[in-house]
Amino acid sequence: MSKVFSEKKKGITTIKLVYCAMLIAISAIGSMIKVSGTIAFDSMPGFFAALFLSPPLGALVAGAGHILTALTSGFPMTLPMHMLLMILMAIAAYLFGIIYKKANGILACIVGIILNGPAILFISAQFASIIGLPLNGWAMFNTLILPLTIASAANVILGYVIYTVLNVRKRN
Length: 172
What we know:
With 172 residues, this protein is mainly alpha-helical. It has a two-stranded antiparallel ribbon. The chain is built from seven helices and two strands, in the order H-H-E-E-H-H-H-H-H. The chain has a single domain (2-171), classed as Orthogonal Bundle (Arp2/3 complex 21 kDa subunit ARPC3).
């Protein structure tokens, strides 16, 4: 674990690759813990990975987590919609990791929750209108805003807390 925290080694090491694979496997487990429809505990490992490994690897884990959730749900909102959501979730995890490194954990959590919840929902509700899904636009936004924001907060905060606990243990 100490090599992961080393700032001297840049790039993807074998250790980081193994951790990334394990976190994607944890995302697969989280994808089966559904809050509502395709809202699940799949992105927590991605937010954790954005801090523990790197923002790009966090994006990879978060994106994979969403596709695994969509897969276990049967792609209920069509493949194009879930591909968009995968990209947006990857961006949210990436920005969460960048903001953590440049500012602080609280700001990163706030931005991560907003991006992973209301912001992604707004964009996907508009895209759902474009591709003609039955639940789209403001009806979709208003229906999903509460469960998605709660799940987003749980995923982001859990990822941050687990990272913080591991980081404190590493120093002791």
